[in-house]
Amino acid sequence: MLISGTGSNMQALVRASQQQHWQQRFGARIAGVLSNKAQAGGLAWAQAQGLPTALVEHSAYPNRAAFEAELTQAIARFDPHGRPDLVLLAGFMRILGPDFVQHHAGRLLNIHPSLLPAFPGLHTHQRALEMGCRFVGATVHHVTAEVDCGQILEQAVLPVLPGDTPESLAARVLTQEHLIYPRAVERWLAAQP
Ligand code: GRF
Predict the structure, then answer these.
(1) pTM
(2) Residue 112's CATH number
(3) In the sheet where 108-112 sits, what is the strand order?
(4) Ligand 1 contact via 46 beta carbon (within 6 Å)
(5) Does the structure's ipTM exceed the value 0.90?
(6) Domain of 153?
(7) How many folded domains does the chain comprise?
(8) Atom of ligand 1 nearest to the CA of 174
(9) Are 91 and 6 in contact (CB under 8 A)?
(10) Is 125 among the residues known to form the active site?
């Protein structure tokens, strides 16, 4: 799992993976948590849980290709066979290039705080309010070379309430993110042969 910040989605996924029915049905576990930021709160949380962690700071590499090559190697090191079944982006705030995306195609998922295909990119809640949207939401999707454009796996929809701000929307949407990301992963796992 790849994170850059608080890691609340990561925590939701870790908790889901610890549920008995996940264990019994899929034998799934979180192989490791990787952050591109040393200060990411989620990294400390994962360490405290005893999960394998890695730090790959983008700022330490001369270019994106070198950073992503190390990312790929660090992800492989999490798995005894060198290839985790899924690579989950959970608040990972770096755009990934086509080579990385191609390498992990079909098993690279992301969560985005908007009802895609509306509002790819940043500042989604502010943009939704400015557009006068009556509904907002979150989307779990496959990652492709085009940012926030891959096939959709799961969505949550919420009404915009009078007086909502980008912050109040972000907080309400985030609680839904914590439900739909585990659900999307569970569906992905259930669909595997
Ligand atoms: C979430 O809103 C996610 O959709 C977005 O960044 C935020 C990360 O939050 N990409 P957290 O680190 O999972 O708490």
Answers:
(1) 0.96
(2) 3.40.50.170
(3) 53-55, 33-35, 2-3, 87-89, 108-112, 135-142, 152-159
(4) no
(5) yes
(6) 2-190
(7) 1
(8) 2
(9) yes
(10) no
Which residue, by CA, sits nearest to atom 2 of ligand 1?
113
Distances from the Cα of 80 to the Cαs of 76, 84, 115, in angstroms? 8, 9, 36
105 three-state secondary structure? coil
- What CA–CA distance (Å, rounded) separates 190 from 193? 8
In whole angstroms, give the CA distance from residue 85 to residue 105.
Answer: 11
Confidence of residue 23 (pLDDT cuts 50, 70, 90): confident
Ligand 1 contacts CB of residue 49 (under 6 A): no
Of all atoms in ligand 1, which is nearest to the CA of residue 113? 4
Determine whether the annotation assigns residue 8 to a binding site: yes
What would the mean pLDDT of 88-107 be, rounded to a whole number? 96
Mutate to test the pocket of ligand 1, among 3, 8, 9, 152 (most ligand atoms within 8 A of CB): 9
Distance CA 90, CA 87 (A): 10
- pLDDT tens, residue by residue, 112-142: 999 999 999 999 999 999 999 999 999 999 9
Ligand 1, closest atom to CA 3? 12
